[in-house]
Amino acid sequence: MKKKNQQRSVSNFWNLLKLPVKETTLLVSCLLFVLLGALIFVGWFDTVVFTAVTKQISVPSTCIEVPKKQEFPLQCATGNVTQTYPSNYPRTQNLQKPGSFLNVTCPSYFRWIHEDLRPWKETGITRDMVESARRTAHFRLVIVDGKAYVEKYGQSYETRDDSIWGILQLMRWYPGRLPDLDLMFDCNDRPVIQKKHFRGPNASPPPLFRYCSTPWNLDIVFPDWTFWGWAGTNIKPWKDVLKDIKEGNKRTKWKDRVPYAYWRGNPKVARTRQDLLKCNVSESHDWNTRLYNQNWRQESKNGYKQSNLEDQCTHRYKIYIEGIGWSVSEKYILACDSMTLYVSSSYYDFFSRGMVPLQHYWPIRDNNKCTSLQFAVEWGNNHTKEAQAIGEAASNFIQEAMKMEYIYDYMFHLLNEYAKLLKFKPTVPPGAVELCSETMACHRDGTLKKFMVASLVMSPGDTTPCNLPPPYDPTSLRDLLDKRLETMRQVEKWEDEYWNNKNKSY
Q1: For residues 9-27, b (16+ Cβ closer than 10 Å) or e, as one string?
Q2: Nearest alpha-carbon partner for 325 in 217, 207, 163
Q3: What is the pLDDT along the chain (506 residues), one digit of tens a residue?
Q4: Which of 215, 155, 216, 220 is nearest to 181 (CA)?
Q5: Which of 222, 226, 221, 309 is nearest to 265 (CA)?
Q6: Helix (H) or strand (E) run with residue 148 in it
Q7: How many Å apart are CA 374 and CA 243, to the nearest integer?
Q8: C-alpha span between 495 and 371 (Å, rounded)
Q9: Strand (E) positions, 219-361?
Q10: Under DSSP, is residue 293 helix (H, G, I), strand (E, B) or coil?
Q11: How far is CA 78 from the centre of its chain?
Q12: Where, by residue number, does the polypeptide cross the bilayer (predicted)?
């Protein structure tokens, strides 16, 4: 009897090997995954090796059964009922996905969070400091016990104050994880807290959040409203835009693209843009540029047919130039794998300080745009491999280090580090109202409502936030800035030599 059972087991084993390829692969993958897990358990296999090996193995969902994620769409009430935070949305993050506790370090640009908050590191932030930022703020955001309250002081341009929507989505992504906090937000382009007015040990600069700053200002930079869509220009939420531009990059190979520098935008907003238009191709001269005036009012009437971002990755080179301050166009231009020609700017947003000249972009002089652009294109067309690599590095940076999960992680760490500096217990101001996704979105309509629904976080994230890297030590930071400046000067030197030699030949 025992012998017959052994023969039956051997026969069953060989029958397994006769399974179709798909079923056999499934079986082997499951067995291998279980075996590696067992070896780790008894200490015969290193977890680092296990991680490396399993990354090469496609583990079928039948091996690790992950419960289907429950989603929580907008719950809009009918009639004149006051909207409230949905009672069934999770108040805490329940991590069930394998690997959700893996230690992942945030991208390097997160280190600038420490620098932006450094002015308050020694003194902390008092309630008086916060309230002194009200002078230009559009709204005050207070979070108490996991609920968001907003007090509005003025109407921002278009829908810029919908950054509040982004913070509400962060609270859905990491429910119950944001601390109590109290902050002021200014939605205008240019920073206003000047560093020169707040020097010395007794300085008390107002902590004011906005979308950009400069080395001479203390405004705290925060992701802009367009990450959740820009209804005024029909630009979809960032997650969808990234996918579209990635597909657009595939349509035309780099070597087959138009070998000129491309820019499309509104020149009326800044003198530097009007100056850029002087570099357009004309009957008397070709500066290797193709520049187009974007009339948003006319574009709106035509259904935005000429402004699809994924259709604008057709030239080898794309120009970035600031507007009134920094421009939201920056991330869209860098997402194309064309080499970005970055016109020198004093303004920075939250991620641009993580980019390196000649690695992610080619620097362009602001005071000699035309000659600088012409040289950059000449250089790129004579060094196609290097130019293509710069474009691809920037595109990879945007696609990977700037995916939406990292946008939420940046917001999470910035708000947490800011809250640690508060020397008072946040309370709800008398004029503030409680907000949730429903109170903001349910009464909206048209494109704005569409983009809010598209950018709604449907359920909590599967992972913990990435690990915030430590601050720069003074020497490392100085070396980083010196190296950046040295690289830019090297490009200027190449450019000067190019034009000197060209002038001598005439």
Answers
A1: eeeeeeeeeeeeeeeeebe
A2: 217
A3: 544 445 544 444 444 444 444 444 444 444 444 454 554 444 444 444 444 444 344 444 445 555 678 899 998 887 666 777 778 888 888 776 555 556 799 999 999 999 999 999 999 999 999 999 999 999 999 999 999 999 999 887 777 877 899 999 999 999 999 999 999 999 999 999 999 999 887 889 999 999 999 999 999 999 999 999 998 889 999 999 999 999 999 999 999 999 999 999 999 999 999 999 999 999 889 999 999 998 878 877 777 877 789 999 999 999 999 999 999 999 999 999 999 999 999 999 999 999 999 999 999 999 999 999 999 999 999 999 999 999 999 999 999 999 999 999 999 999 999 999 999 999 999 999 999 999 999 988 899 999 999 999 999 998 999 999 999 999 999 999 999 999 999 999 999 999 998 887 76
A4: 220
A5: 309
A6: strand 147-152
A7: 31
A8: 8
A9: 220-221, 258-265, 289-293, 315-320, 339-343
A10: strand
A11: 35
A12: 26-45
- 3 state DSSP class of 241: helix
Residues 6+ apart with CB under 8 A from 183: 130, 140, 141, 142, 207, 209, 415, 418
The token duo for 419 is 């809250």
| Cα distance between residue 34 and residue 164, in whole Å | 46
How many residues are present in the chain?
506
Structure tokens at 503: 């002038």
Q: Please name the residue that has the structure tokens 């296999």.
A: 45
**CA–CA separation, 394 vs 337, rounded Å?**
7
Helix axes 47-55, 21-41, angle to 10 degrees: 170
CA distances from 30 to 5, 35, 138, 198, 250 (A): 25, 9, 56, 62, 35
390/384 Cα distance (integer angstroms): 10
Q: Is 453 exposed, middle or buried (0-12, 13-18, 19+ CB in 10 A)?
A: middle
Q: Are 485 and 357 in contact (CB under 8 A)?
A: no
Degrees, nearest 5: CA angle 438-440-443:
85
For 368-402, b where at least 16 C-beta lie within 10 A, e where not — what string? ebbbbbbbbbebbeeeeeebbbbbbbbbebbbebb
Long-range contacts of 384-388 (CB under 8 A, 24+ apart): 384/254, 384/255, 387/316, 387/317, 387/339, 387/362, 388/254, 388/255, 388/337, 388/339
- Alpha helices by DSSP H, listed for 257-403, are 271-276, 296-301, 329-335, 369-382, 384-396
The Cβ-side half-sphere exposure at 194, using a 13 Å CA radius, reads: 2
